[in-house]
Amino acid sequence: MPLVVDVPLNTMVADLDESLRTLLQRELGRHGFDNVEVAFDAPAKEWSSQLAAPTVNVFLYDLRESADHRHRAIEERRTNGGAFETRPPLILECSYAITAWTQAVEDEHRLLSQILTILYSYVRLPADALSGRLSNGAQRYPIFGKVGQPKAEGKADFWNAVGGQYKASLDYVVTLSCEAGVVHERGPEVRGLTLRIGDPSGPPGTVTELHRVGGRVTNGDGEPLAEAWITLPELGRWGSSDEDGHFLIARVPPGKHRCAARSRAGEEAETTLTVPGGSGELVVGPAPAKPRTAGKR
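RE: above sequence
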């Protein structure tokens, strides 16, 4: 099984920073909070002493796998040439501590209140605020954020880490997915097996061949059908399809055999299996209707 490692380009954390800057500055400006800067520096004393304008500090203090969205199954993609197994994406929680910095505490509280409203309103980050690779489909899932959540056990106390003076802060967690650049490639699927056994009813040395044959059952949309009954009626052989629609039937003699499939919903299909060397591909159910062309009846 060849192992292919092709590490993809990933700028998701930096792109998330710019997306949050765009969203916050846009929405704050709509409500009269003009000229508010958005910074991502650690809010240490040296940093805060240099501020010259109202500032929202969005400090990323923790990155970890999400325990609520953990993928465990290996993803499999099949083609005529074989099968490819890919590690599932790492679902990552990006935790920010958000603080407001102005000359007056009352203004800080007004600014922090407005930020809370913005982030609580946008449960899903809007597409027109996304930057960089976050905006071009690199994320397979929508980007969700949760604000005002309690810090998970084990997360760092960033105030002690940066040595800053304690301020009221909002905990904001954004969920991103990190794709793996690792693919295992398997060879073509083996569906056939030949068994040669002696035939006691014939002359000495007579050998009878029995084969294992297989195939796949899909519906009209091309999706695999699980738990469909597969029969070779004239031989009295039968089997059923697995969750990927694949089936195997053993001890089949050479020749052409009628193969019938029946879904759990009662829909049926037939094909002819040529043994050895053949595989059955059965489509159970009607194909999706084609859209009507304008102007035709």
